[in-house]
């Protein structure tokens, strides 16, 4: 695959990946493109469904959105929300570069979600769990691997509770996965950089500094 080097952001649910990412994409508009994953989990209030035309039948089947809504252009897309059947069909057809089961739901990165971003010569950002990291390492994507970690499991739990997006069951599953993730992130050679998201400003500066070389390459190419 061509274009600038992609970036994989990983780390426990609630560590602050989306918060950091949104800020980065806002500050560097036209530099990054988000790889919109597929998932079988339910959308949260305010989450936008990926509205790529190639996923239209999937989308209509899964969520019964009016066609006019589906076709209206949106500024940000969180996921392609799909049924288990549709997701499995895509996996069986070889449409995914990686997929994983997380907290009772399926998640996966389709090849086209990466290609769509790379075709625009943008830095493709992937937000995947630790299984995704391991599976992407088996491909030829060659991204920069960054882990975002919370200062402690207690703080992570507080942030997840305060976010008010999870049921007690899904919160517990996320904390269980977080313990494994926190351990693995310490293994040498897995990540190019591990950022502890304690103070948001400091964490953001670290993320920006590790990416600035790639950012400037994309900006220079546009001149
Ligand atoms: N392997 C894999 N993991 C994903 C993908 N998309 C999201 N995830 C991970 O799934 C986990 C749950 O994501 P989500 O339901 O959005 O919850 P949140 O991270 O707490 O906001 C996170 O660790 C994400 O990094 C994907 O395409 N592949
Ligand atoms: N440095 C920080 N200090 C305090 N709260 C934070 C910090 N970073 C993120 N948060 C909050 O923690 C919650 C989880 O962050 P989020 O970006 O949704 O995590 P993730 O995408 O990794 O699941 C959100 O409510 C967010 O506002």
TrEMBL record:
EC numbers, comma separated: 2.7.4.8
Gene3D superfamilies the UniProt entry points to: P-loop containing nucleotide triphosphate hydrolases (3.40.50.300)
Domain of life: Eukaryota
Single GO MF descriptor: GMP kinase activity
Pfam families reported for this sequence: Guanylate_kin
Main localization category: cytoplasm
InterPro entries in the record: GK/Ca_channel_bsu (IPR008145), Guanylate_kin-like_dom (IPR008144), P-loop_NTPase (IPR027417)
Domain Guanylate kinase-like: from-to ranges: 4-212
GO CC aspect terms: cytosol; photoreceptor inner segment
Compartment annotation: Cytoplasm, Cytosol; Photoreceptor inner segment
Keywords: ATP-binding, Cytoplasm, Kinase, Nucleotide-binding, Transferase
Leading EC class: transferase
Catalytic activity as recorded in UniProt: GMP + ATP = GDP + ADP
Family affiliation: Belongs to the guanylate kinase family.
Description of how the protein assembles with itself and partners: Monomer. Interacts with RD3.
Name listed for the protein in its UniProt record: Guanylate kinase
Organism: Sinocyclocheilus grahami
């Amino acid at each position: 695959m061509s274009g600038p080097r992609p970036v994989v952001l990983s780390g426990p649910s609630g560590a602050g990946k989306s918060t950091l990412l949104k800020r980065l994409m806002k500050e560097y508009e036209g530099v990054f493109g988000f790889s919109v994953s597929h998932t079988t989990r339910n959308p949260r209030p305010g989450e936008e469904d990926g509205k790529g035309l190639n996923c239209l039948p999937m989308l209509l089947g899964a969520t019964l959105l009016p066609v006019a809504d589906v076709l209206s252009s949106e500024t940000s897309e969180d996921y392609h929300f799909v049924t288990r059947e549709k997701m499995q069909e895509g996996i069986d057809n070889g449409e995914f570069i990686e997929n994983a089961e997380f907290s009772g739901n399926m998640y996966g990165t389709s090849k086209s979600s990466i290609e769509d971003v790379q075709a625009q010569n943008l830095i493709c950002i992937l937000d995947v769990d630790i299984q995704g990291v391991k599976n992407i390492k088996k491909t030829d994507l060659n991204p920069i691997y960054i882990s975002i970690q919370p200062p402690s499991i207690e703080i992570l739990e507080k942030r997840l509770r305060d976010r008010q997006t999870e049921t007690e069951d899904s919160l517990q599953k996320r904390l269980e996965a977080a313990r494994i993730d926190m351990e693995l992130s310490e293994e040498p050679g897995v990540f190019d950089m591990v950022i502890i998201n304690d103070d948001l400003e400091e964490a953001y500066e670290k993320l920006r500094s590790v990416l600035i070389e790639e950012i400037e390459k994309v900006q220079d190419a546009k001149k």
